[in-house]
Amino acid sequence: MSIKHENLLKKLQKSGLSDKEAFIYVALLELGGAYPSKIAEYTGLNRSTVYMLLTQMSVKGIVNEIEKKNKQFYQLESPTKLVRYAKSKMSIIQDEIENAQRILPDLEGLLGTADKPKITYYEGIEGVLDIYATHINVSKAYEMLAWANVREVEDLLPKNFFQDYIKTKNHKGITSRGIFPSNPIDKTFVERAYSDVREHVLPNVRFIDETLFPYKSEITIYGEKNVSIINLGKEKLTGVIIEDETIHGLMKMIFELSWNSRAIENNTKGE
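Given the sequence above, the corresponding structure tokens read:
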């Protein structure tokens, strides 16, 4: 490419012309008009591409074509045509914006009533604490169901936050059933953490062989339609909340299958 006015080229590319159209515009300016073959040579663009772009630019009114020696010769129209073209694009865009604004209420209404899950992503310790806060931010009592690795949870959560979490469960009468890995820390969790709560709020816990199911995560089924999934690995501390009645119901059925599985060690409350 032998374009000389590179600064002008950049300005044209910001004025509504594509990069290649701007090349051709500057080439025509510097050559004072040219045949397509010369423009292709001057810009380094493929000849078929040059023909196509010249046709488009002619339609836009910024170049014109005349016949010379039985060939099509191209030259620039008045620069005011370029301004006129830019204004016409702006007018079209403005019409599109106005049309989009007109249908916005309809689109929002349709999206608002769409029957699809709401999924919210969380990251880092603050995000995970926000997830736990939603477990207890409820207006009425319910039964919480969870697969949890309590050893990882206790190591991760601030002690005061965890204590307040259990106190709020007790105050709101949130009962729970949990499936934990079978290890000494998880087996003594209820006795240690729920020593001051009402009897009926004590979690009902069963255990699973952690050598067969070594999960470092937590799935909690809670409220009327929520499921939270948390990766408890400190290097990948993330989580999501899914709000959907169908998924909530499905996860409850899967939990019951797990709860009654032969792989589960049956235990009484607090053991």
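The chain has a mean pLDDT of 88. Try to locate this feature in the token string yourself.
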